[in-house]
Design a protein that fits this description.
390 residues; eight-stranded mixed beta sheet; oxidoreductase; AcylCoA_DH/oxidase_NM_dom_sf; Butyryl-Coa Dehydrogenase, subunit A, domain 1; Butyryl-CoA Dehydrogenase, subunit A, domain 2; Butyryl-CoA Dehydrogenase, subunit A, domain 3
Length: 390
């Protein structure tokens, strides 16, 4: 291999690094990793590319749907492992599917709390392999992540939605949209989550995402104009008197932080895999990179293990998930520059792959909650107070 050349990692068969995660991916979605690996990175990452259709064809939408609702019923520890494997193959697919999984996890929790019609949606997601976009508040500087730009009011038997969500991953491929709303039925505003079929009149998609980074996640703008939703597709959530999250919100945030952390760790791991195979850096440097990444993954798995116990989640579980997310974020910020240096300048300039993966890993810090929003609440929680995220 010429100095600085990019190793053909798909041809390697004796690698242990990332093998446990890829084994989980192959167990639940057989053949998906192999099909993704056969595609050039640019093809995997482009809008309208084959990655999302391959995920659907493999049965990916059913991953978090419980087995009693005809889903695959994957546990949280396996889910974060699987998501790391996908992040190492296709960053855009990892980000987009995390938003789907977040929506499904919210539906599962809503059903466990209210025992409403959510089971029908879960079975439809599993049987019809539906993709659920997640329209929860993010991307608006200076505003609480719990605030929603989507306003809702009662109109007869229906709930009517107006507003926009940008960016909204899966905007082009979504079958359903799960969106947070501020509902005012005359007794004061309250938080709620509405599930909207993508074909509902008044739902439209508009260009928004201008970057080449993570373009395959389809994160454009979704607008809702006088969208009518039946009341059984609206789940009312809320905040405690101290503005702590309710059970549905808590579960959603825990899943989101852990799946996103695993996804972006996978992107950094793809760079580390190239470092390991290229063998340009010293063994000490390669080992140091791998130790940091594996340690971060251990923290993610540990936080995810609580979800598999089945017990109700509390603010201590959310705090642990946030610690894992920000720890992973810091690990990525340390490791990625070292990977680039270890691979050398020829690897950086001879292909877009290395620079692209590096650019993708930076985006974890832009997902909610930002460190600025989370810091005060985390400090308060560690001091014995309530964990408030905005």
């Amino acid at each position: 291999m010429a100095p600085g050349a990019i190793p053909q990692i798909e041809e390697e068969t004796a690698m242990y690094f990332l093998e446990p995660e890829r084994s989980v991916l192959d167990r639940f979605l057989p053949g998906l990793d192999e099909r993704l690996a056969e595609l050039p990175q640019r093809e995997r990452e482009r809008p309208g590319g084959p990655a999302l259709p391959l995920f659907k064809a493999a049965g990916g939408p059913a991953l978090l749907v419980p087995a009693e609702h005809r889903g695959l019923g994957i546990g949280a520890e396996d889910a974060v492992s699987l998501q790391r494997a996908i992040g190492a193959r296709s960053p855009s697919l990892a980000v987009a599917t995390t938003m789907h999984h977040l929506s499904v996890a919210g539906l599962v929790q809503a059903y466990e709390v209210a025992h409403g019609m959510e089971w029908m949606l879960l079975e439809a997601v599993a049987d019809q392999r539906l993709l659920v976009a997640s329209g929860f508040a993010e991307g608006r500087s200076g505003q609480s992540i719990l605030d929603s730009s989507i306003k809702a009011h009662q109109d007869g038997d229906d709930v009517v939605l107006n507003g926009a969500k940008k960016p909204c991953s899966l905007s082009a491929s979504m079958d359903l949209l799960s969106v947070s709303v501020t509902l005012d039925d005359g007794q004061g505003p309250e938080l709620a989550v509405a599930v909207v079929p993508a074909a509902t009149p008044g739902v439209s998609v508009h260009p928004f995402w201008g970057s080449f980074v993570l373009a395959g996640a389809e994160s454009d703008e979704v607008r809702l104009h006088d969208v009518h939703v039946p009341p059984d597709l609206v789940v009312r959530t809320g905040l405690g008197e101290d503005r702590t999250l309710d059970p549905v919100q808590t579960v959603g945030f825990v899943w989101f932080e852990l799946l996103m952390a695993a996804s972006y760790l996978g992107m950094a791991s793809a760079l580390a895999e190239r470092v390991l195979l290229a063998k340009r850096a010293s063994a000490a440097e390669r080992a140091a990179i791998l130790v940091e990444l594996e340690s971060a993954m251990g923290g993610i798995r540990g936080a995810a293990a609580v979800l598999d116990t089945g017990r109700p989640l509390g603010q201590d579980d959310l705090l642990r998930a946030l610690v894992s997310r920000f720890s992973t974020q810091d690990t990525i910020d340390r490791v990625v520059p070292r990977c680039l240096e270890a691979l050398g300048g020829m690897a950086y300039v001879s292909t877009d792959d290395t620079a692209y993966l590096s650019a993708c890993t930076a985006a974890l810090k832009f997902h909610p909650p930002s460190r600025r929003w989370a810091a005060e609440g985390m400090c308060a929680a560690f001091a014995g107070g309530p964990l408030v995220l905005g």
